[in-house]
Amino acid sequence: MRHGSTPIPVDSSWIRSVTYASDATLTVRFRSGAVYRYFTVPRSIREELLTAPSKGAFFFHRIRSAFPHTQVVGPPGGPDVPLGWLTVAADQDSTWPAWGPRLKSLNLTK
Hints:
The protein contains two helices and eight strands. By secondary structure, it is α+β, with helices and mostly antiparallel strands.
């Protein structure tokens, strides 16, 4: 967390919690385990998100592609997770986690 921000639990089937920092950074924790950080988000957008009837729909339409962002943590079983002797690497883009990863490579080594 930044600047003493505290996660705010969200009543959503898609989003677990949000954190808003004094530097206008919105951190979104998804129920999948993925964590994304969105930059230059106005406080008014955070307030609208928290009061929206559908937090997931508001996020999808007003935040997801509207602000610069970075993935902080991937979901369990996400990209580059070894599966025994098979390693799967996935390409991440701005559609993650909504549409899932695209397969980038397979490493079939023991």
